[in-house]
Write a structure and sequence with these properties.
By secondary structure, this protein is an alpha+beta fold. The protein has 15 helices and 16 strands. The strands form three sheets. Strands 1-5-6-11-10-9-7-8 form an eight-stranded mixed β-sheet, with helices on both faces. The longest helix is centred in the first third of the chain and has 17 residues, at about 15-35. It binds histidyl-adenosine monophosphate. Belongs to the class-II aminoacyl-tRNA synthetase family.
């Protein structure tokens, strides 16, 4: 029997992987300019980290984690997201003790969620994310949203929108919670069994139930905005003021609750508005999580961040018909005349690569004509021909494939000639 790839995973094949590299590189450059440094945390963590961090009433923790016991019967989980791990590392490495706060960290790597696979939803996906931990300042929230947006914008996406909300502080959340319970309690029997448990445990989760999302009581549920304390409302207003001044357009959506428990105050999502995009339109999600670090045993350290999957980012680029400017040119193809020159063609190929050119040769013992055909197909800029007779005199031929001109040169001038010709080509 043929063994197939697990459901909800993909092989990123040549032709596709270049796009991933390109996107990752653009994001890294953006983070670098914003003075964010990369953090690489393990792919698996103690299960408890996500139970405590992401929240044990969330779908992610109750239904979607890849959890297993290791050989010493310790419960481990493939990370479903990156924020809990980054907060753990912030505590573990005492980053709170550093003079410069917030700690500005970014990451890029695979996450795992046992979800029903569909377009834009996989069981293994790659998130690019950023976290700023140690400061509560509306400027950091606004900057975080601008940072996420800039990744999409620098790649050329236009049909995107930023949606924001505030989930307030503890007091706001408690008042909202009571109102939600009062709202849903009389009709809770009409909801799924999960929602019935959610009612007392975490009624906010009813609002993003995948089963009952169309129930009329969801649309009429009390809005968090009406329960924000003066302080929370003021913080939210400040965040919006920053967005206005930096000219980042946004829409507000008081029903946006996000699927993770650690959020308070600012939450946001970036959605694709492209017509060609599938049913799942959220490209990026993020927000503030002021209690998370404390929950994981560190000192109270407010944080804010976002994560986006590369899968959805590439789908958005495809929907807007944007092609990435991926360079895949071949500078030099070395043609050998006769098998005896094989070591020399290899030597010249390697020398060109060492000098910074992309270089290739034939490995199928093709005739000269066939080798030229390959060079043509690969769009080689220069073809270098090595023949036994010329070689005896220390000579090789360089053919410029754009002009069709060729010249015989001393093998010792090989790299210098390539460099000169390349330079002439660039300045022409
Ligand atoms: P999230 O909303 O669960 O938030 O996921 C963020 C993004 O990850 C989504 O907007 C989407 O692009 C991508 N994503 C999630 N699940 C899948 C999937 N099954 N297949 C493909 N892409 C997916 C978080 O993970 C938070 N840690 C974000 C955050 C960082 N909040 C603060 N800091």
């Amino acid at each position: 029997m043929k063994i197939q790839i697990p459901r909800g995973t993909v092989d990123i094949m040549p032709g596709e992987s270049e796009k991933w590299q390109y996107v990752e590189h653009v994001a890294q450059e953006i983070f670098k300019r914003a003075r964010y440094s990369e953090i690489r945390t393990p792919i698996f963590e103690h299960t408890e980290l996500f139970q405590k961090g992401v929240g044990d009433t969330t779908d992610i923790v109750t239904k979607e984690m890849y959890t297993f016991n290791d050989r010493k019967e310790r419960s481990m989980t493939l990370r479903p997201e990156g924020t809990a791990s980054v907060a753990r590392a912030y505590v573990e490495h005492k980053l709170f003790g550093q003079v410069n706060q917030p700690a500005k960290l970014f990451y890029c790597g695979p996450m795992f969620r046992y979800e029903r696979p569909q377009k834009g939803r996989q069981r293994q996906f790659v998130q690019i994310g950023a976290e700023a931990i140690g400061v509560q300042d509306p400027a950091v929230d606004a900057e975080m949203m601008a940072l996420a947006l800039s990744i999409y914008q620098e790649l050329g996406l236009k049909e995107i929108k930023l949606v924001i909300n505030s989930l307030g502080d503890k007091t706001s959340r408690l008042a909202h919670r009571e109102a939600l319970i009062a709202h849903f309690k009389p009709s809770i029997h009409e909801f799924c069994s999960d929602c019935q448990t959610r009612l007392e445990k975490n009624p906010l989760r009813i609002l993003d139930c995948k089963v009952d999302h169309a129930h009329p009581l969801i649309a009429t549920a009390p809005s968090i905005i009406d329960f924000l304390t003066d302080e929370s409302l003021d913080y939210y207003t400040q965040v919006k003021r920053h967005l206005d001044v930096i000219e980042v357009p946004y829409v507000e959506d008081a029903t946006m609750v996000r699927g993770l428990d650690y959020y308070n105050h600012t939450t946001f999502e970036i959605m694709s508005e492209s017509k060609g995009f599938g049913a799942i339109t959220t490209l990026c999600g993020g927000g503030r999580y002021n209690g998370l670090v404390e929950e994981l045993g560190g000192p109270a350290s407010p944080g804010v961040g976002f994560a986006m999957s590369i899968e959805r980012l590439l789908a958005a680029l495809a929907a807007e018909e944007i092609t990435l400017p991926i360079a895949n040119h071949l500078d030099v193809f070395v043609v050998g005349v006769g098998e005896a020159v094989s070591p020399i063609t290899l030597k010249l190929t390697l020398a060109a690569r060492k000098a910074g050119f992309t270089a290739e040769r034939d490995y199928l013992s093709k005739k000269v004509k066939g080798q030229f055909k390959t060079a043509d197909r690969e769009n080689a800029r220069f073809v270098v021909v090595v023949g036994e007779e010329e070689l005896a005199e220390g000579l090789i031929v360089i053919k410029d494939m754009t002009t069709g001109t060729q010249e015989k040169i001393a093998m010792s001038d090989y790299i210098a000639t390539l460099q000169k010709k390349q330079h002439e080509g660039e300045t022409n």
